[in-house]
């Protein structure tokens, strides 16, 4: 006999399966709130030579007086929102369809997959990957620039943080299914292109840890922005190591 977990959920599971979706709601919800606040704040994003990843590339405020983050964050934001892992995460945590394995979802309606509006828009994921990759190039530029202190080479805590941040974001992108498709898709015989096959195997290996890279890169980009904001507002002082 099925055990009723709540009014809406039915399952035979006896473990505390609610923990995972609740934690996901808290973390993803907090990230959306924080990123939205920072994008609308439109200040404290530059502490030379450090630039917040939310505002990269740096846009001249005379050309675009509104927060430049609005022009930037849509690409990495939609890339994450349509990510295969994040789809599973927020389908379960926010929509409860289903909230966990072997747990009945809220909706009793027939499921049509991602073949109808609005879920069909999830299929644009690979195009958001291309757009986010352009932003990633600028982030690497910012990471290298973070070692330039008034024309002289130096290393600060912020320099290391920016490099670590862009590394984590790169691992998240390189472990993406869209990247695997880009380098190994449409090949019927891998032996005809050994270089692409080697790259595909590497991306496939990274893809096994895609969930890990998704979470750590999410924390990384927020903490990087927070660090730069604290330095820009004078709350903390960036420590020079070299």
SSE layout:
Elements: E1 3-4, E2 10-11, H1 19-41, E3 46-47, E4 50-51, H2 69-72, H3 74-81, H4 84-95, H5 125-145, E5 148-149, E6 152-153, H6 157-174, H7 177-184, H8 194-207, H9 210-232
Antiparallel strand pairs: 1-2, 3-4, 5-6
Helix pairs in contact: 1-4, 3-5, 5-6, 6-9, 7-8
Name the descriptors.
5% strand, mainly alpha, disordered N terminus, 242 residues, globular, 9 helices, two-stranded antiparallel ribbon, 6 strands
Q: What structural class do helix, strand and pairing data support?
A: mainly alpha
Helix content: 40-55%
Q: Indicate how many domains the architecture comprises.
A: 1
Annotation field: number of helices:
9
Distance between the termini: 67 Å
Oligomeric description of these chains: single chain
Uncertain segments are 1-7
Q: How does the overall form come out from the CA principal axes?
A: globular
- Return the string of H and E elements: EEHEEHHHHEEHHHH
Radius of gyration: 21 Å
The main β sheet shows up as: 2 strands, antiparallel
* Mean pLDDT rating: 89
Q: How is the largest sheet built, in terms of strand order?
A: 1-2
Number of strands: 6
Query: Beta-strand percentage?
Result: under 5%
Fold and architecture overview:
The protein has one domain. A two-stranded antiparallel sheet has the order 1-2. Helix 3 (74-81) crosses helix 5 (125-145), helix 5 (125-145) runs antiparallel to helix 6 (157-174) and helix 6 runs antiparallel to helix 9. It has helices spanning 19-41, 69-72, 74-81, 84-95, 125-145, 157-174, 177-184, 194-207, 210-232; strands at residues 3-4, 10-11, 46-47, 50-51, 148-149, 152-153. It contains nine helices and six strands.
